[in-house]
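> forwarded from #structure-qc
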């Protein structure tokens, strides 16, 4: 880790789980550097740091954490005097944690594994088409059911608990991947959800992260570090990545 970076993050900018952690770091003004690998390219040392081969991984000195929810909880507790990620009351804090869990699990299943992975990642990494039936089911069943639920949970204006926080970031992160897969929520059918997504994805933190995300598209995995450096990403000097992807249990 460089002398001025407070933490190191291992994981791709395009991952919604990495995006959630990076957005929380940025909201708190925490300096970080990143090793922008996907778990498919992780080496043996990456497996030691993240036994489930998931990203992101956070490293600070001897501390290594994997799982985005654990990392975000640590960020909030380690930097309590900076921008709060959770609301003030116990009830609201519990609801925020539930919305994060809903995003990480249910939204992760339908937005990432059934849509984004099948339509975008699978062809790039494995050079073959994804599962068309899973894509169709996500578009017609999975994602509409998620949006039906969110329509009753999201505010008509502003953010969920006043200031932008963990719950907002966790939910919005998946809609960026949906955009990359060509999906936008129907504003007539889900006006609250669509309005919330628009506000969140236009937030300065999400707009800055989108610059790094877009730099990764259209270049080969071996060229991504150079492409990210060209747009100002602060990268680690070394990487836990391998030249070729490895099959196995992984999470974006």
């Amino acid at each position: 880790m460089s002398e001025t970076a407070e933490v190191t993050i291992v994981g791709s900018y395009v991952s919604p789980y990495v995006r959630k952690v990076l957005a929380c770091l940025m909201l708190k003004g925490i300096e970080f550097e990143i090793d922008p690998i996907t778990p498919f390219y992780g080496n043996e040392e990456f497996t030691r740091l993240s036994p489930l081969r998931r990203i992101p991984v956070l490293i600070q000195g001897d501390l290594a954490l994997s799982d985005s929810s654990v990392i975000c909880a640590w960020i909030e507790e380690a930097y309590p005097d900076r921008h709060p990620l959770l609301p003030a009351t116990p009830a609201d804090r519990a609801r925020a944690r539930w919305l994060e869990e809903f995003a990480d699990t249910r939204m992760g299943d339908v937005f990432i594994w059934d849509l984004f992975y099948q339509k975008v990642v699978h062809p790039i990494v494995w050079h073959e088409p994804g599962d068309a039936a899973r894509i169709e089911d996500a578009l017609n069943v999975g994602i509409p059911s998620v949006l039906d639920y969110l329509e009753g949970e999201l505010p008509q204006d502003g953010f969920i608990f006043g200031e932008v926080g963990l719950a907002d970031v966790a939910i919005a992160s998946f809609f960026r991947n949906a955009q990359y897969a060509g999906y936008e929520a129907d504003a007539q059918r889900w006006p609250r959800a669509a309005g919330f997504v628009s506000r969140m994805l236009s937030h300065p933190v999400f707009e800055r992260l989108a610059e790094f995300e877009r730099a990764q598209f259209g270049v080969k995995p071996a060229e991504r570090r150079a492409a990210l450096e060209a747009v100002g990403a602060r990268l680690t000097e070394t990487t836990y990545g391998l030249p070729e992807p490895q099959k196995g249990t992984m999470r974006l």
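QC bot note: The mean pLDDT is 92. The first helix runs from residue 16 to 28.
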